């Protein structure tokens, strides 16, 4: 049975689920249609395998040659992309979009499971467990829709073509939808069975999902809606959910092990399943399900590197603001070492980027067989495991290191931020939740309220306290390029303007300092001594970017739908 749960995470690659051949061959009801065979739902194996399809919603490092949610989501102040770095996620109203249709497909799947299980002969405990898992994923899908579209139609049961009133219903106020999401996730927390596998949907996963959802909603209420009462309520939910499980997921000592661990031959793991910090993961396996994150992030044709703004955000090891950004140029090898900069800063930076700049005209190949280069000069080493064969790292669909999806640091940072927003953060909290992060990053001092309040970074243009700014900094540095987190952080904090060329921060569009390199050895664009990531283009701010446009085909089908402002 344990093998079932490991491989069910690989289902979207077409991998057969061990022990379920009969189900796969004979009994897979298409959940795009109404399941009419009531006896189907009386079999817990059938139900479990329908629930297992929700693993497809967790992108992780991607599948085969497709992009994933780590490294590839470059629209933020952390990265400069390759060709479309000046574009927003949306530039025009699409005819159709999987951002809209995808979640509703999964919501229908959840509603069908709930209806089928409710009418089944399963035991009450089995029913509650399966319904809870379906409701957790329904909550995640509505949360995704609300983040992107705001007000959305709310469907809480499986519909058929005769249900025209609900099929073509109006948009429901986002707060109402989020209250519905909260009810779903609370049911999941209360009713999902206790499970131990890191590839199973568990009660602890539901708590972690709740903390993430509530952190977003608390911030949105405070910074967009100016509703402090709602903000405090939702921040309180973050603390309750996070502290209920945090002690079970302490920090591991090796930051890189979260990203580079892989499944070994014979079904054992060299990392994530034995990593005390991991709550939930996506399993990859050599020649079974693999990805291309390492290949794309170590390419010789221009990768999306971290920005100067991201590089400069890492503190010195003594807890002070970073100083200096000039590496050491070697004229003989035409390489620039930045080891001198990395050794005195938060060590998560040294584990995120390479110790040499990689730019067009530079010659540093590092562990690769050909010189790598980045749009920003800074490489991305975070997801590359060079203990594996070189060909496995530099070939598409050949990487098999596993992806963390929810883990201790992500949970600890949610608790820290929520408590800072509530004004209840204490030195004891910093010792419990922030010091372990700083310890594995190599800091020589411990975080205290006095220290964080005293930093007063001049780069803080967010209108928040130094304390909250430093909590946000720690979140940024710890989770850099992970799971698309940074973009949605900027959205919920009402700071998306930061990544526009007209209202934003200049360093967001700059790369490394290459002023020490002779111009004849630089093939990439640069300005004022720094690599220039705009290439003369602009990403002009538009208020409408806080919401995605609703696809035109949906508005054409449903006259009750209205378009988002500005679209």
Structural features:
mainly alpha; 4% strand; 21 helices; three-stranded antiparallel beta sheet
What does this structure look like?
The protein is globular. With 567 residues, the chain is mainly alpha-helical. A hairpin with a 4-residue loop joins strand 2 and strand 3 (335-337). The chain has a 3-stranded antiparallel β-sheet with strand order 5-7-6, with no helix packed on it. It has helices at 2-8, 21-26, 44-52, 98-118, 124-149, 164-167, 174-191, 203-223, 228-245, 257-260, 293-297, 308-312, 339-342, 347-350, 390-393, 408-422, 427-440, 449-455, 466-478, 485-492, 552-557; strands spanning 278-282, 328-330, 335-337, 403-407, 510-513, 526-527, 530-532.
Strand and helix order: HHHHHHHHHHEHHEEHHHEHHHHHEEEH
Number of strands: 7
Indicate the percent of residues in helices. Answer: 25-40%
Low-confidence stretches: 1-34
Structural class, by secondary structure, is: mainly alpha
Task: Please state the oligomeric state of the protein chains shown.
Answer: single chain
Largest sheet, if any? Answer: 3 strands, antiparallel
Strand order of the largest sheet: 5-7-6
Average pLDDT: 90
Radius of gyration: 24 Å
Estimate the strand proportion: under 5%
Distance between the termini: 49 Å
How many helices does DSSP assign?
A: 21
Bulk shape: globular
